[in-house]
Task: structure prediction
Amino acid sequence: VDARTVRSAKPEEATNIEFGLKKTLDNGFVNIALFEQEIDGFQSNLFTGTGFALINAGKQVHTGVEVDSAYAVNDNLTLTASATYLDPEYETYNAVPDLTGQAPAGVSEISANLGAVYAYEMGADKEAYFRVEYMYEDEVQVVDNVASSIASREVNLMNASYGIENTKYGWEIRAWVRNLTDDEFLISAFPTTAAEGSFTGYVSAPRTYGIALRQNF
Result:
């Protein structure tokens, strides 16, 4: 595909089928969903090193199951958990025939999110909370046009924050840290421009932290 001549594509056509079960508990809930999504004429937009190749490349099918839940352990502590198992496939890939029947890059088979929030009162009109979140994605090839031996990723990301809210005057102060464990993984990759056989990638942001102030009026 010549990225210099391909500038537009027709709209994608998506068909979604989903069956679900929702259960409310005394202190939480559990939701389960089985789904299948078909995308006809999916838009391929790979960066080739000199530009983006945008075309209607074929058909994708995504089949999976998702579980979402939350549980209040007591008045202060709430736990959340969600997980997805996904079986994605290029049913047809006209632009790259070798990928027909293969799994699309960048789509993890298993992903999960865990969270916990501990909240408590600090006296008149003040509430405090501590929040921690963990996100996991199993190893996957990053992009279709760079081999997994060169560009793959597994995500183990943890964020945390501590905040104090004043319910009377509407202000909040929050200290936060993202990527607490300084996990490093590739976000994207592509063949390097004018350097055949070499590749360039973008890595995740390192550990960052800060303080946020908010005032509601």
Q: What stands out?
A: The first strand starts at residue 13 and ends at 25.
